[in-house]
Amino acid sequence: MSGILNSSIGRKFAMALSALFLMIFLVMHVSINFTSVFSEELFNEMSHFMGTNPLVQGLMQPILIIGVIFHFVMGFILEAKNKSSRSIKYASNSASDNSTWVSRNMLLTGVVVLAFLGLHMYDFWVHEMTVKYVEGDMSGLIDPNNAESGFRYYEELREKFVSPVRVGIYVVAFVLLALHLLHGFNSAFQSIGANNKYVKSLNGFSKVYSIGIPALFIFIAVYHHFTH
Amino acid sequence: MMNLTLKIWRQKDANDKGKIVDYPISNISPDMSFLEMLDVLNQELIEKGEQPVAFDHDCREGICGTCSLYINGRAHGPETKITACQLHMRSFKDGDTIYIEPWRAKAFPVIKDLIVDRTSFDRIQQAGGFISVNTSGNTQDANAIPIEKENADKAFDAATCIGCGACVASCKNSSAMLFVSAKVSQFALLPQGQVEATDRVLNMVKQMDDEGFGNCTNTGACEVECPKGISLENIARMNREYLAASFKG
Questions:
Q1: Three-state SS at B88
Q2: ipTM score for this prediction
Q3: Which CATH architecture group holds B119-248?
Q4: B119-248 shares the fold of B2-112
Q5: Model confidence band, residue B4 (pLDDT cutoffs 50, 70, 90)
Q6: CB-based contact A193:B236 (threshold 8 Å)
Q7: Nearest to A7 among B209, B236, B247 (CB)
Q8: At A164, which helix (H) or strand (E)?
Q9: Is the CB of residue A13 less than 8 Å away from at least one CB of chain B?
Q10: Which CATH superfamily does the domain covering B2-112 fall into?
Q11: B49: buried, middle or exposed (CB in 10 Å: 19+, 13-18, 0-12)?
């Protein structure tokens, strides 16, 4: 048990667990974001709850950050080991005859998603942390001295999607996330040892999830861009 | 009859840098096997006083797992579920250029030309790919132990792995997971193998890691290129066996 993370299977298992955790998080994230399409008030209420609840802020948020960092760091560690396992490349290699592009390019799609996360954190998380924990404003109001001014979250979200460049970056990033998930979803189950008739029936769901979740994120960004 | 251009990896020994050398070859019958075509080439090289191309072969009927050629970018060539010795020249066209390379993996160093050292597989087998049978004379007859048909079939399918190394050669990470998982599964599915199951999977995976094979990223290339069609289900089974064994102890 002690040396499990030193083994190839143990590392893949840990990688898969962090992936499954992040996939669950994506469902929660998109569900909250999607409320902004049909209810400004509900989006504001949910955002304020997530942004001020001690359990979410003090426990879930750190676990999420650790999960994200772990997933990326472990991904790079595994990739470095894999690269070193073949020092001379083939002069002729028809990899497309036996495997999909997405399965062979998880590092590429993952790095794009990582770069996007940097922008995303700058856009929303850094600003939130500054307002709440540096400036000490936990009110969530547009004007902290005026209770009638209303919550700021919806307006801030809309403001971010005014720029067509930013929306374009979001669209590209989520397309790459979809490609990452198209292989990652099933791969995670295989890595935890689940490959039987029940898991195979998940294949259809995995495609719906892998395309559907990023598509919803894209829809939300495009919707706010064109309705602002 | 076909005229072909062969691009073959030539390497004097393990220390040589090696390079691809072009060999035009004529009058090749489509009915020849791929290895017979190499025999013809080697005969020509010998008659010219040149070193023949060294390549592994033994049974030439797809059983022994000795032949190990990466042909036009694929392990054992363009057809599926066959070994290089079962490949025939009818799979190619007149005028084709054919790349012939050795398996590429740090754990399979080249010995000469197209021959690689696959003793890393032997060491993995020695680490646990067996059962310890009491041969004192009171051993229970294996046929007297009832085994579910589904498990017996899966164990048999796993046991058809011939250890050729095509899985390693095809995997972008040079992972040996399909080979090791087949060897683990063929025992894990049978009562005779379950006695030593915990030690077996831990020891075989440790040896696999020590040999320098890469990690499995579930691309599925190994399953596609395996001449015996060993299923990815075996990898999932080994993952379960390994994780259970690790948590147990």
A1: strand
A2: 0.93
A3: Orthogonal Bundle (1.10)
A4: no
A5: very high
A6: yes
A7: B209
A8: helix A164-191
A9: yes
A10: Beta-grasp domain (3.10.20.30)
A11: exposed
**B65-79 as b/e, with b when 16 or more CB fall inside 10 Å?**
bbbbbbbbbbbbbee
Contacts of A194 in chain B (CB under 8 A): 236
**Cα distance between residue A124 and residue B10, in whole Å:** 57
Minimal CA separation from A195 to chain B, in Å:
6
Contacts of B232 in chain A (CB under 8 A): 190, 195
Asked if A78 has any chain B CB less than 8 Å from its own CB, the reply is: yes
Record: contact B175-A85, CB cut-off 8 A: yes
Q: In what order do the strands lie in the sheet with B97-102?
A: B19-28, B2-10, B97-102, B69-71, B74-75
Q: Does A107 touch chain B (CB under 8 A)?
A: no
Q: How many CB pairs under 8 A join A and B?
A: 141
The answer, for B73 touching chain A at a CB cutoff of 8 Å, is yes
Which DSSP string corresponds to B4-72? Answer: EEEEEEE-SSTTS--EEEEEEEEEE-TTSBHHHHHHHHHHHHHHTTPPPPP---SSSSSSS----EEET
Q: Which residues pair with B189 in a beta bridge?
A: none
Q: Where are the domains of chain A?
A: 4-84+106-227
Tokens 């307002």 -> residue: A131
Measured at the alpha carbon of residue B15, what is the angle toward residues B13 and B21, in degrees to the nearest 5? Answer: 55
- Say whether residue A98 is in contact with chain B using an 8 A CB cutoff: yes
Q: What pLDDT digit, counting tens, does each position of A28-73 carry?
A: 999 999 999 999 999 999 999 999 999 999 999 999 999 999 999 9
- The residue behind tokens 């997971």 is B177
Beta strands B69-71 and B74-75 are: antiparallel
Tokens found for residue B96:
């084709």
Is residue B243 less than 8 Å (CB to CB) from chain A?
Answer: yes
CB contact under 8 A, B104 and A95: no
Rounded to two decimals, the pTM is 0.93
Residue A17 C-alpha, separation from nearest chain B C-alpha, in angstroms = 13
Cβ separation A194–B236 shorter than 8 A: yes
- The CATH number of the structural domain formed by A4-84+106-227 is 1.20.1300.10
Q: Where are the domains of chain B?
A: 2-112, 119-248
